[in-house]
Amino acid sequence: MIKLKANYIITMNEKNEIIENGEVIFDKKIIKIGKNLEKNIKTIDLGENSVLMPGLINTHTHLEFSANQTTLIYGDFITWLNSVIAKRENLLADCKNNCYQNAITQMKKSGIVAFGEISSTGLDLDHLKNSDLKVIYFNEIIGSNPAAVDALYQDFLNRLKESEEYKSEKFIPSISIHSPYSVHPIVIKKVLDIAKQKNMVVSAHFMESKAEREWLDNNKGDFKIFFKQNLNQETAVTSAVEFLKQFEDVKTHFIHAVWANEEELQYISSINASIAHCPVSNRLLNTGLLNIERVKNLQIPYSVATDGLSSNYSLNLFKEIRSALLMHTGLHPKYLAKDLIKSVTKNAGEILNLNNGSIEVGKFADLISFKLPQCSNIEDLYLQIILHINEIEKMWINGEKIEI
Ligand SMILES: [Zn+2]
Question: How many angstroms does the Cα of residue 164 sit away from the middle of ligand 1?
Fold first, then answer.
């Protein structure tokens, strides 16, 4: 059992309490929170201007593409996608041991205790199965062409099975549907049946770009040429609404949703699904900015996530929420800052079923601490953290100290 003492304890509990000069007692899970708690427990004082808060959770990454720095082409979604297709094999081959380790270290330093990894090949499994961070390992299915679907489905099943051999408290195998335009509805049904049977959280890209909107609505737009050239396909395999309806009974995390319309957002809300907001990725591919106020008003839980280094310059989640803070110019910075911290802690923990993301009795002790440069008003704390913190000092996962 350990007791931590900090100047500011950000609980992210129901009342969003911040405890000044507070203490937290925990072993694997959090046991007690308050002030002047039991004296006879080993106590670590985190020091002047210290902040103790729930560890951050990055719900959407693609670590297989971590070798990319300047290779892929930004500025337009389809141009970027073509560059991914052209460079994919090289980037996958270039991501060897250090590449994964560097990506994980970067996330760890920025306070990330858990992340959702989209695995399209299984090449990342060896590097992630024993990670000291928690991993929700989304085995991804892709394939819209009926002729190729059986082989792709079999490959998916093999990857899923292999990942399940390493299932543990910190490594949770799961399932990802690539997108409505790239997976045949029959395969989606089969894969979602597995997810329901195994009670898995599912992830799916949805309405990332205007090209996707136009293709699914009218079989037109930039995807028309793309599908004709690459897959000799003239029409979309599904409509957006038909796609969404398949997720009625499964806990789903939709990624991006920038181009989702009102009807689709309402449906996402009605099935208690969530959304990942990846503002830097969306900006670099010039796909627009999610209306997070509308999402919040519809009571859709949202997280902010970095996406992969295939469409970002960093996996640092503090930098990501700082970007979000600066991009959403219509929202008040103080209130937005609080929502953004919540999105990468409490919301993200609930979205991925992790029983963490807040400092409350019974939650896993997944905690981070750091020091602010000076003291801060309580009401400015969330904003000051987002502005000034890039790296953390200490981390605990399931109550165990993690070397950073
Ligand atoms: Zn993605």
Answer: 22
Q: What is the pTM of this model?
A: 0.98
Catalytic residue among 23, 117, 140, 208: 208
The CATH number assigned to the domain with range 2-55+358-401 reads: 2.30.40.10
CA of 296 to the centre of ligand 1 (A): 21
**Is 212 noted as a catalytic residue in this protein?**
no
**What is the Cα–Cα distance from 316 to 124, expressed in whole angstroms?**
19
CA of 344 to the centre of ligand 1 (A): 17
pLDDT (tens digit per residue) in 223-277: 999 999 988 999 999 999 999 999 999 999 999 999 999 999 999 999 999 999 9
* Whether domain 56-351 has CATH 3.20.20.140: yes
User: Taking Cα atoms as reference points, which of 376, 366, 373, 370 lies closest to residue 391?
Assistant: 370
Q: Give residue limits of the domains in the chain.
A: 2-55+358-401, 56-351
Task: Region of 199 please: left (phi>0), alpha (psi -120 to 50) or beta.
Answer: left
pLDDT in tens, 40-79: 999 999 999 999 999 999 999 999 999 999 999 999 999 9
> Given this chain, do its domains 2-55+358-401 and 56-351 carry the same CATH topology?
no
